[in-house]
Amino acid sequence: MARRSSRSSKRVLAADPGIGFSLQLTCKEKTQTDNGDIACQLCKLGDRENQLLLCDGCDRGFHSTCLRPIVFRIPSGSWLCPLCSSSHRGSITDFPLVQTKIIDFFRIQRPFDLAEGARKRRKTNSGIFLKKKSRRLLAFTPSKDPSQRLKQMASLATAMTNSGVEYSDVLTYMPGLAPRSANDASLEKGGMQVMSKEDKASYDQCKEMSRGGACPPLMVTFDSHEGFVVEADGLIKDLTIVAEYTGDVDYMSKRENDDGDSIMGLLFTESSSNDLVICPDKRGNIARFVSGINNHTREGRKKQNLKSVRFNINGKAHALLIAIRDIHKGERLYYDYNGYQHDYPTEHFV
């Protein structure tokens, strides 16, 4: 792990989702070695200069591997230590909301009529149909209050702007990365579901609502340990399509040494050279801020309320985040992004 200690090499980690600090520091004096060099405030040693980060606020040093969590990314730009950044960490309200036109940021087309959408759902959801299709995927139910939906979208716009990510609710195929033709679901070696006609109707409804500015009832907040996280801002029912995982599609072989913490597997083929991943570091949506669980602990697994499900939709692979139980307002969203399981509600999960 290489870290440069020059001031030009550092960046503000407060805008990096997934990176936070859980340290209790009180010393405001710089720790130095016997020969006057700056030492790490935590281990008190001046070795491993390639890992030493210097704070732009107080000039104190910290080894990237001494910080908790460890800083895995090479900082660029200014960087603040835990003490100097503590006054700027907390909830999303500590960050100024993005001053932008929501309709432009999310490329909203014809505003979605919630009443019209509800009538459409009531028309198709007969009692007999629900009984036969009891495990059908559900489209998300937006908040009825327009002002609350604006707050939800503003929280996402703020998180994405702070993270330097452009909003996109579709998979993107950029020059130099994997072409659209590479995403051929027929190449999958057996771990993907073909989306049914009924589930496709729910998926299409989610896309239609998103294009019209009717977002899922979700709020992006900021946690001092986990960075940007996503919380339910209303009841989300079991089997609801919460979001599609979006971003740039690329070959997994080209991203094996990528330090991004939000990469999602998309296509797994007989030849590993054809495997694809979704990279939301430049383009993406709210899915990139959903937290992953520690699947090696019982406590971590108990937090899980979503699963990432890969579907064959019109011949292309897609990854959707699906609620695996009712999720109540204020509950943080978690999923196991390392899972590859054979259960609920489909056969295979990424």
Q: Terminal Cα separation, in Å?
A: 28 Å
The fraction of residues in strands falls at 15-25%
Topology, number of strands: 16
Order the strands across the largest sheet as they lie in space. 4-9-11-10
Radius of gyration over alpha carbons? 22 Å
Count of runs of 4 or more consecutive helical residues:
7
Average pLDDT, rounded to a whole number, is 75
Shape: globular
Which structural category do the helix and sheet elements fall into?
alpha/beta
User: Largest sheet at a glance?
Assistant: 4 strands, mixed
Q: Uncertain segments of ≥5 residues (pLDDT<50)?
A: 1-28, 87-96, 118-133, 339-350
The helicity comes to 10-25%
Succession of helices and strands: EEHHHHHEEEHEEEEEEEEHEEE
InterPro entries: ATXR5/ATXR6, SET_dom, SET_dom_sf, Zinc_finger_PHD-type_CS, Znf_FYVE_PHD, Znf_PHD, Znf_PHD-finger, Znf_RING/FYVE/PHD
Keywords: Chromatin regulator, Metal-binding, Zinc, Zinc-finger
Pfam families: PHD, SET
Domain PHD-type: 37-87
Explain what the structure shows:
The chain is an alpha/beta fold. It contains seven helices and 16 strands. The strands form six sheets. It has a four-stranded mixed beta sheet with strand order 4-9-11-10, with no helix packed on it. Strands 5-14-15-8 form a four-stranded mixed beta sheet, covered by helices on one side. A two-stranded antiparallel ribbon has the order 1-2. A hairpin with an 8-residue loop joins strand 10 (264-267) and strand 11. The longest helix is centred in the middle third of the chain and has 18 residues, at 146-163. It is globular and about 70 Å long. It starts with 51 loop residues before the first strand and ends in a 15-residue tail after the last strand. Mean pLDDT is 75; it is low at 1-28, 87-96, 118-133 and 339-350. InterPro entries: ATXR5/ATXR6, SET_dom, SET_dom_sf, Zinc_finger_PHD-type_CS, Znf_FYVE_PHD, Znf_PHD, Znf_PHD-finger, Znf_RING/FYVE/PHD. It comes from Adiantum capillus-veneris (Maidenhair fern). GO terms for molecular function: zinc ion binding. Keywords: Chromatin regulator, Metal-binding, Zinc, Zinc-finger. Residues 37-87 form the PHD-type domain.
